[in-house]
Amino acid sequence: MFPLGVLTAVIMLVGWFPASALWHQQTQINATAAQIKALQRQESTLTSQAKSVDTKAAATDLAREQYQLVSPGESLIQVLPGDSAGQVSPSSADPGLQPLVSPSNAGVSSVGSTLSTPATHTSANAYISRLVRTLEFWR
After folding, report:
1. Where are the domains of the chain?
2. Virtual CA dihedral for 114, 119, 122, 123, nearest 10 degrees?
3. What does the alpha-carbon distance between residue 74 and residue 63 come to, in Å, rounded to a whole number?
4. Crossing angle of helices 56-67/19-53, nearest 10°?
5. How many Cα atoms are found within 13 Å in the side-chain-facing hemisphere of 42?
6. What count of other Cβ atoms lies within 10 Å of the Cβ of residue 93?
7. Spatial separation of the C-alpha atoms in residues 60 and 74, rounded to whole Å
8. Using CA atoms, how far apart are residues 55 and 49, in angstroms rounded to an integer?
9. Contacts of 27 (CB under 8 A, 6+ apart)
10. In angstroms, rounded to a whole number, what is the distance separating the alpha carbons of residues 22 and 26?
11. C-alpha to C-alpha distance for 81 and 86, rounded to whole angstroms
């Protein structure tokens, strides 16, 4: 009777013991612990970076480098890149100095639009037709 009871207890223990669930939960716990350690390392790195930028000199340097800000009474001068002779070419400096491009050479494809010559109308109809042609871009 005793061996039969021990055998039944072993079968029940093996059958109902959640070994696979415990193993799965332990792998999840290990993965979460690894993520926590990685986040703690990132936090320490970011904290050291924040401490290094916390000074007034570092904030001033950051404002000058990234935002082109200057202190009161100073002026900002930007040096544009030039060509090999040291001269600034109009194409590399200000885009406003470049020559205008004609609409036919602009490279814009007009797939569905047709150009029409304006027809002569009476003065009231001419105003309305000019207004409609002006607002055609709303279509």
Report:
1. 29-74
2. 60
3. 14
4. 90
5. 6
6. 14
7. 13
8. 11
9. none
10. 6
11. 8
Q: What share of the chain is helix, strand, coil (3-state, %, to 5)?
A: 60, 0, 40
Q: Encoding tokens for residue 108?
A: 């814009």
Q: What are 15's two structure tokens?
A: 């059958």
**Which residue is it, tokens 């900002």?**
76
pLDDT of the chain, 139 residues: tens digit per residue: 899 999 998 888 877 777 778 889 999 999 999 999 999 999 999 999 888 888 888 888 888 888 888 888 888 887 777 666 555 555 555 667 777 777 777 765 555 445 555 555 467 778 888 888 777 766 5
* Residue keyed to tokens 């020559």: 99
CA distance 30 to 23: 11
- Residues listed for the chain: 139
Return the structure tokens found at 59.
């904030």
DSSP 135: G
How many C-beta neighbours within 10 Å does residue 88 have? 14
Site of tokens 């590399």? 92
